[in-house]
Write a structure and sequence with these properties.
This protein is an alpha/beta fold. It is built from twelve helices and 13 strands.
Length: 350
Amino acid sequence: MLPRPVAFYVHHHGSGHANRTKLLSARLPANTPIHVFTSATERFADWDRGIIHALPPDMEPGRDPLDDLLDGEIFHYAPVDLPGLQQRMARMADWIAREQPSLFVVDLSVEVLLFVRLCGVRTALVRLHGYRDDPAHRAAFRLADRLVAPFPPQLEDAHTPAWVREKTLYLGAFSRYDERQESVADCRSQLGLSDQRVVTVINGSGGGAQEISRWQAIAHATPDWTFLLVGSVSSIPEPATNLKRIGQVDDTFPYLRAADVVVGSGGTNTMMEVGAARRPFLSRPEPRPFDEQGCKMRALEQLGLTRIVDPDLAPGEWPALLEQAAGYRTEEWDTLFAWTGTDSLFTRPE
């Protein structure tokens, strides 16, 4: 007899939610039925570990979702008279009534967590960094059976209350590149790089396109380094000779591992994949609700694994910054990449 299914709700913004779901589900017992509910089904196009349930979007053309945001309430986003939202909740409720899941992992929505819990299902809420002490987060944190942090306890925010920490299962650092073994030399050879010093500038899927004109100015001011721009990058007619527009690639690991220094946002995927590559990291946190990326990078900076760079740093300051960053030690990542397992997700906290 198969065990009861485990369900995941996966938010549509950014790839981190989907990547975490894939990594978590891969560590569950092989005979556990897994069901994923999301309106970003394209992120699971080549995934066959579970069943995907497409949800209607909780937005509609011509209606600005910012107008429906709530401040200081039990919900963050609960628009009225929105058929897509009503349909998505109805689909989840209908499936819960039929399948009786043993656990619903929510990554990430306060509203979905509260709704699923009202349907009488045990819940686990993925908890990210930031100042999440508003009424909506406090309610979800209280009602969830388990909070799940996709990071190690060493990266916990200093302001997180003790009762939240005690309820949290810390998974440690993990990424899709944890099993990669290529050396720096292997990756440089694969990319056709010789002995030049290399900066990989990586852009996660949750952010906007790289500011190509700014990197053009930085490259001109730093002629002894080669800049590789990976991810969403706008075009430019005549880039500097030491600036290469790589664009979107499925496998970013060679570009990370080959770099002397990586520059990226404060996104979870970016942070963990740089860590998996064990390369020096300069971070440029992007504005996010609850100061998520800023808090995350400040915690990482405390461990000596990044330096937060002012987004307005003058191009002429970059040569000295890169020289310093190239000497950063990365051994602390070995301690952070210690998977703690998912067994306790199925054990009710005391």
